[in-house]
């Protein structure tokens, strides 16, 4: 809370050194960013989960760099204390280092303080290029939702010794290439622990067990705004979907029963003006209604 986080500060924030775990939450707009920062989060992730929880897509692959820049700018306008990281969406860091740097710069110009990208060894040249452009970059290993087609679904990763060792080696390679932190998604908790112990930058887990250096959840998931497809790692702290629908239903009922608005919720004319208005209430005079501009 109020820590003035920077990428270098985050990069050395390990729980094994006696630090408290980092708190990362997603946000996609200014009110969300204000609430997340007031709740004391250390990092706001403008995640490409945007595509699923806000834009109504059924995966993250349709999210564009312009979508991400638009929502990153909304988050940044809230001037949150938390450190803002924005996701590079699919295919914005796969083609060439030059294109990758340009896309990362678009998110920085929109107000992010760092970018995040998914993947292991294949991403090393892109991570190095982003770092050379002086842009801090966070990695993302384990279940990488942008790889949903090649992975064949949202599946737990690192379930065999070989797979766990590969992810662990990739984490070391990402740290070596310059990442200041790594999101670990959907790996067995023992693998989360192993990776966390084997690198000097923080791991931020989502479905990666309790031993990571931080935890992240998606805003809409923890608030119970989306109830479809909740994985077991989501703890729902509120039931805002039901609460919101109840509030909206009450409004609709009040309108239909003519209970809304009351005179207290309406603007009033002074008695003098009401009297004057009375002079105009004859049908003829209404043709030149002086209140027409209302
Ligand atoms: O897009 C996102 O929200 C993420 C988190 C799930 C880590 O990448």
Provide a quick synopsis of the model.
By secondary structure, this protein is of the alpha/beta class. Helix content is 39%, strand content 12%.
Jot down its keywords:
294 residues, alpha/beta, TIM Barrel, 2 domains, 8-stranded parallel barrel, 12 helices, binds 3-methyl-2-oxobutanoic acid
Reconstruct the topology from this structure.
Blueprint: H1 7-11, E1 22-26, H2 30-38, E2 43-46, H3 50-53, H4 65-77, E3 83-87, H5 97-110, E4 114-116, H6 124-132, E5 137-142, H7 148-151, H8 161-177, E6 182-185, H9 189-198, E7 203-206, E8 214-217, H10 219-222, H11 240-256, H12 271-279
Parallel strand pairs: 1-2, 1-8, 2-3, 3-4, 4-5, 5-6, 6-7, 7-8
Helix pairs in contact: 2-4, 4-5, 5-6, 8-9
Bound molecules: 3-methyl-2-oxobutanoic acid.
3-methyl-2-oxobutanoic acid is lined by residues 26, 45, 47-49, 87, 140, 183, 206, 216, 218.
The portion of residues forming beta strands comes to 5-15%
* Count of alpha and pi helical runs: 12
Q: Stretches where pLDDT falls below 50 for ≥5 residues?
A: none
Mean pLDDT over the full residue set = 94
Q: What class would the helix/strand composition place it in?
A: alpha/beta
Total strand segments: 8
For the record, the count of structural domains works out to: 2
CATH domain fold name of the largest domain: TIM Barrel
H/E topology pattern: HEHEHHEHEHEHHEHEEHHH
N-C termini distance: 47 Å
CATH class of the largest domain: Alpha Beta
Q: What percent of the residues sit in helical stretches (DSSP H or I)?
A: 25-40%
What gross morphology would you assign? elongated
How would you name the CATH homologous superfamily of the largest domain?
Answer: Phosphoenolpyruvate-binding domains
Main sheet strand line-up: 1-2-3-4-5-6-7-8
Ligand kinds: 3-methyl-2-oxobutanoic acid
For the biggest sheet, the summary is: 8 strands, parallel, barrel
CATH architecture level-2 label of the largest domain: Alpha-Beta Barrel
């Amino acid at each position: 809370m109020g820590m003035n986080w920077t990428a270098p500060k985050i990069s050395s924030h390990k729980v094994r050194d006696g630090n408290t775990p980092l708190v990362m939450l997603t946000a996609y707009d200014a009110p969300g960013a204000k609430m997340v920062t007031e709740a004391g989060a250390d990092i706001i992730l403008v995640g490409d989960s945007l595509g699923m929880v806000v834009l109504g897509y059924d995966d993250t692959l349709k999210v564009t760099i312009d979508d991400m820049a638009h929502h990153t700018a909304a988050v940044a306008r809230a001037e949150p204390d938390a450190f803002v990281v924005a996701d590079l969406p699919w295919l914005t860091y796969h083609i060439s280092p030059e294109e990758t740097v340009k896309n990362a710069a678009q998110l920085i110009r929109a107000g992010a303080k760092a970018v995040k990208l998914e993947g292991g060894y294949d991403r090393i040249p892109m991570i190095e290029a982003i770092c050379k452009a002086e842009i801090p970059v966070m990695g993302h290993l384990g279940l990488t939702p942008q790889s949903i087609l090649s992975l064949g679904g949202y599946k737990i990763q690192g379930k065999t010794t070989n797979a766990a060792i590969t992810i662990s080696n990739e984490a070391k390679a990402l740290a070596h290439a310059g990442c200041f932190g790594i999101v670990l998604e959907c790996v067995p908790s023992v693998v989360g622990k192993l990776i966390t112990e084997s690198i000097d930058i923080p791991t931020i887990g989502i479905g990666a067990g309790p031993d990571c250096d931080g935890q992240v959840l998606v805003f809409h998931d923890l608030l119970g705004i989306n109830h479809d497809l909740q994985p077991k790692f989501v703890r729902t702290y509120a039931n805002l979907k039901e609460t919101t629908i109840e509030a909206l239903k009450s409004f609709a009922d009040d309108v239909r029963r003519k209970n809304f608005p009351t005179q207290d919720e309406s603007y009033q004319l002074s008695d003098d003006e009401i009297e004057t208005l009375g002079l105009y209430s004859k049908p003829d005079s209404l043709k030149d209604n002086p209140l027409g501009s209302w």
